[in-house]
């Protein structure tokens, strides 16, 4: 058991996080499952190829004060932390003019501050063992803004700056970084998105319903991590928009204005 690698996944109760857990377990990894939903995590645990090699560790990204003790629990159980996948987060569906400042603060607390706080809590363990890989799930909205996503896109843009800096600083210590930018993926993220007043969107958007299956997304992400890629775009034809924006910005803005917000 001691020679098996350990992967810690947040947002592991559904969507991309759940599929990552299933696939890493199939590969023989010891898996740490985290999200706010303990019962949902326990159901995921039962589906894993090796449920005995897992740890269910409930975690709230808005409560970063407990991250140090949680990281210590993982280390105490498995003796190492090889991969941290910051997949947990929350989306948004509201126009700027209709969005309370508290909603922006909540999005930033969960998607940015909670995310980087967990990374900082794991970093000392990785530095001590002389290796590790930190993965963060951004979004195509981390490459450009989009309708109804002003706060969400802001948090994802912030993650890019943080993790590119981390990559430069920690490479010398044997620590790798991968930033993933999923496009339209079939997950429940739109259902749990929050509106301008903080209430839950509660609907499965067409963009998600018709998106790439979550298991395919997880497979592509794992492949990118194994190849030590700094960044990876995952999705369908929508991810081509990133290249179009870089090479043909006028065309990009003309096209993006015609896209459905949901």
Question: What can you tell me about this protein's structure?
Answer:
- The structure is a single chain.
- Helix 1 (15-26) packs across helix 7 (214-226).
- The protein has helices spanning 15-26, 38-47, 67-78, 101-129, 150-170, 206-209, 214-226, 240-247, 249-256, and strands spanning 6-10, 30-34, 54-56, 83-86, 132-137, 175-182, 185-186, 212-213, 231-234.
- It has one domain (6-256): Rossmann fold.
- The protein is of the alpha/beta class and 262 residues long.
- It is 45% helix and 15% strand.
Q: Which strand order does the major sheet show?
A: 3-2-1-4-5-6-9
- The whole-number mean of residue pLDDT values reads 96
- Counting DSSP H or I runs of 4 or more residues, the number of helices is 9
Largest sheet: 7 strands, parallel
The rough form would be described as: globular
> How many domains, in number, for the residues?
1
SS content category: alpha/beta
Annotated CATH architecture: 3-Layer(aba) Sandwich
CATH class: Alpha Beta
| Helix/strand order, N-terminal first | EHEHEHEHEHEEHEHEHH
Task: Kindly provide the radius of gyration, computed on alpha-carbon positions and rounded to a whole number of angstroms.
Answer: 18 Å
Q: Termini separation (Å)?
A: 45 Å
In CATH terms, the superfamily is NAD(P)-binding Rossmann-like Domain
- Estimated share of beta-strand residues: 5-15%
Low-confidence stretches at least 5 residues in length (pLDDT < 50)? Answer: none
Find the CATH topology: Rossmann fold
User: How many individual β-strands?
Assistant: 9
Helix content: 40-55%
